[in-house]
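Structure tokens please, single chain.
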Amino acid sequence: MRVAVQPAPFDLGAEVQAFTAGVAGAGAVVTFTGIVRDEGGALSRMEIEHYPGMTEKAIAGIVEEAVARWSLADALVIHRYGSLRPGEAIMMVATAAPHRGDAFAAAEFLMDYLKSRAPFWKKELRADGSAWVAAKEADEDALKRW
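Here you go.
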């Protein structure tokens, strides 16, 4: 299990290859990569803030829960912070399990948690000003299935 909270971009291909090479007994690896999106074409960048130490601990706790709940062989979460431009990778989740159902379910669980509960604060900066990103009801609803 690895959790990385970092400002630097990550190499998705290298991360997936290293993760896959390190999982023994897995029959499935599921990955998801989140990208900074620009709905409407006006976003210049997104600023992501967090509290070092607290963020990693919170994410590690939910990853440990996913590993136990779905009997995962391994799990990986990388989440960036700092200034990110549209189109840049903001995060990735990888899960490995003996069977694909567990790998998919655990990945979705982790993504829903990261979207709604991980202690990150996001501000969108646009030509017409800036605004903190508010929680969305759909994201909160997604957590209810777990």
